[in-house]
Task: structure prediction
Amino acid sequence: TVHSFQEHFDSKIDREVSIEPRDWMPDDYRKTLIRQISQHAHSEIIGMLPEGNWITRAPSLRRKAVLLAKVQDEAGHGLYLYSAAETLGITRDQMYDQLHSGKAKYSSIFNYPTLSWADMGAIGWLVDGAAIMNQVPLCRTSYGPYARAMVRVCKEESFHQRQGFEIMLSLSRGTEAQRKMAQEAFDRWWWPSLMMFGPPDAESPNTEQSVRWRIKRFTNDELRQKFVDVTTEQAKVLGLEMPDKDIKWNEERGHYDFGKIDWNEFWNVVKGNGPCNKQRIDARRNAWENGQWVRDAALAHAAKRKARTGE
Ligand code: 3HC
Result:
């Protein structure tokens, strides 16, 4: 029997066959992937800014080299993801324009300030820890180029998480002042890290469809719960107090119960009123404007080479 394009697509999704760039796909599938992948890429690029602030202030050459490597990795993750988004028909310039004009979103977590060196530990441990929770399932997302980009990203992400945890471990075993700095960073980054997973499933307009299309393998709340369970155990190793007084092991659920998340704060930050939103977007706009001459030079060079060799 002749299958309609839609039936063919649906059967591939059901049989867990990757959807590739040249395959037919529903317009909404393409649209939601462009939305998610481009915003994921923006998150990686914006995510370089909070840590960039501490590369010149790292306490040792080793810490400086490791942080520099991590920030460079984030840039690479952004470029893989912009390339994956391009396979769906959006251009780099369109994506950059959406970011610089404030039209596109990027992860709320990067709109918070990094006030001490311990923030580099808390970000690696919590933010990259949350990113791993979210990105491992994305290695099996139904869109081929996105899944393949995630495989490479996840390998590097675990190094990011380990180096952050190691910073927190050294601080928590250091002087009283260092322990206090680690606890203070934990207190500031805990709740915003839970918000990274997105709104509660009941208030998530995209989750149901994304799960049906196997773009998402788990819902926002499922991944958030996994993160709370794992991180609460890790906090015990660090000897740090949980910033949430309502954290309590629930035997029959087999998970930790935890306190209420302030969703007003979340939507406020997503809307652009977080502590650093303006600073982050201004930094990107300035980099774009100040980098114009590099783009012009590269194009002039390419045109000359083409005229010379005709390739
Ligand atoms: N920050 C900003 N916006 C957010 C958000 C957050 N933490 N969580 C959700 N939103 C937005 C969504 O983008 C959506 O708005 P839109 O329709 O205009 O795009 C709206 O809030 C409703 O949320 P939904 O749950 O319905 O949206 P999704 O189904 O897209 O789920 C998501 C949100 C879980 C972030 C999903 O998009 C996703 O898994 N994205 C890929 C992972 C990603 O972007 N991670 C960024 C973390 S930073 C990172 O990975 C870098 C690492 O190296 C530290």
